[in-house]
Amino acid sequence: MIDYIIGKISDLEPTVAVIEAAGVGYEINIALSTFTSLTGKSEAKLYTSEIIREDAHLLYGFMTKAERSLFLLLTSVSGVGANTARLIMSSFTAAELRQIIATGNVAAITGVKGIGGKTAQRIVVDLKDKVLKIDMVNTDITNTEVTAVNMEIKQEAIAALVTLGYTSAASTKVVDKILQSNPNATVDQVIRQAFKMM
Questions:
Q1: Residue 31: CB partners within 8 Å, gap ≥ 6?
Q2: Whole-prediction pTM value?
Q3: Contact 59, 52 (CB under 8 A)
Q4: What are the tens digits of pLDDT across the range 16-61?
Q5: Which CATH class is domain 150-197?
Q6: 4-62: which CATH architecture?
Q7: Rounded to whole angstroms, what are the CA distances from 193 to 86, 131, 172, 190?
Q8: In whole angstroms, what is the distance from residue 123 CA to residue 184 CA?
Q9: What is 66-133's CATH topology?
């Protein structure tokens, strides 16, 4: 198993980072919080989880070991795949998610696109005690302000929402509304708010 990858960021999108290490470019699936943390940086260290399927070998990357632990716990729940776990982790910070699960806040989990009541209840029942064992020290990386112009933030936010399953038209409408009320929002903040509005 690949524990972590350190290297140059050769490409960065809201859902994928390509890290070049020892002449090899690793395509790593990431959550929105990771995207925000990496924005503006030239190098990165990502803790990884490898998902091996018949048709693909996929890497998922995280800023901290605690985030990776949460991801692995989520994917251990019946009905929660890697992409669903990433979507959940894109909706909350690691600390927020740990608190939500530990306190049995099913409503917050069902607010994530594609998560039904039964799945949310399974997540709480299966992980309520386990999440409290995760060491959350230094878990939440301070978000880096996205220095791109407003239009770039809009385009990246819409692209990320479309990648995560929302329609382009609905995404554009919601993102426009968010940026009108908060022009200085980061891509991460825009998308988190969009999750709550769609």
A1: 62, 67, 86, 89, 90
A2: 0.69
A3: no
A4: 999 999 999 999 999 988 988 898 899 999 999 999 888 888 999 9
A5: mainly alpha
A6: Beta Barrel (2.40)
A7: 17, 25, 13, 5
A8: 34
A9: DNA polymerase; domain 1 (1.10.150)
